[in-house]
Design goal:
7 helices, 16 strands, disordered N terminus
Length: about 280
């Protein structure tokens, strides 16, 4: 049955998408209920772009029939990493996988961030595990010499993610926590609002990923200050290939028409001004 599923996926996906079997090289807890898993996937690593994701078969023969989507966090030669949060049974099982455990991974998938034509200063806004979608982007922006600032939000200090990784590539980071245990006491979008009001951060490009409410707030701030933005949506996914329609979000295609687009294929990266945040 697995071979039949693999063959079907290979026929459905683009030429630069691969369904490959690999094994866990490391799987370490990096914050409360958050893990960083490393594995070797040369083809996926070669073609991965910022904002794209992989679809992982967590285990077989356990009743977990659907794969789980995870953003590609970093690329290290032929190796990729994924930063993930324990949310349900699938991610709990994933966190318990030892070194050498087998994984079936499909990717890279989805529409990436568009940075080809931008030279504007960049502000990265990550809420919770959403920062995972921005690390590969941060590396790409730094390689292009683009001034980049990171805004990282978390529930509390123990769940703060990626600050050291961003600082290691020369990105200054501002932190916000819901309980005020570290950094700004409040939302990460509070910091974004303050920055956009300063003359030295006028006309930046915003890139964001996080909870729906945070992304809606980013969209409003981008519109209010008239700055361009791109957001990576985190909708639940079933097939990750555009077939099941389980991950759709409402998108305004013109003044009179809204259509439901698939986050796994038309996204996960969207222009936030196109998203209908409240229906």
């Amino acid at each position: 049955m697995m071979n039949e599923n693999v063959n079907t996926m290979q026929k459905t996906c683009s030429p630069n998408t691969y369904d490959t079997q690999t094994s866990v090289l490391s799987n370490e807890e990096v914050a409360e209920a958050h893990y960083l898993l490393r594995c070797e996937c040369p083809e996926i690593a070669q073609h991965a772009k910022p904002g794209q994701f992989i679809h992982v078969m967590v285990s077989t023969g356990t009743g977990l029939l659907l794969r789980r989507p995870f953003t590609i966090y970093t690329v290290e030669g032929a190796r990729i990493t994924m930063l993930y949060q324990i949310i349900g049974e699938g991610t709990k099982r994933l966190s318990e996988m030892p070194i050498g455990a087998s994984l079936q991974i499909l990717g890279p998938l989805g529409k990436p961030f568009d940075i080809a034509s931008s030279s504007a200063p960049a502000i990265l806004v990550g809420g919770g595990a959403g920062i995972a979608s921005l690390m590969l982007l941060a590396v790409a922006l730094r390689e292009r010499g683009i001034l980049t600032l990171g805004l990282v939000g978390a529930q509390h200090r123990a769940r703060l993610l990626s600050v050291a990784d961003l600082e290691a590539i020369g990105i200054a980071v501002h932190i916000a926590t819901d309980d005020g245990s570290v950094g700004h006491h409040g939302f990460v979008t509070d910091i974004l609002r303050e920055l956009l009001g300063k003359t030295d951060w006028q006309c930046p490009q915003i890139y964001a990923c996080g909870p729906h409410g945070m992304l809606a707030a980013v969209a409003k701030l981008a519109a209010d200050f008239e700055v361009p933005a791109q957001v990576a949506m985190e909708n639940r996914m079933g097939c990750a290939m555009g077939v099941c329609l389980g991950c759709v979000c409402p998108v305004r295609v013109d003044a009179e028409r809204i259509e439901y687009q698939r986050v796994c294929t038309e996204g996960p990266v969207f222009n936030p001004s196109d998203i209908v945040w409240e229906l």
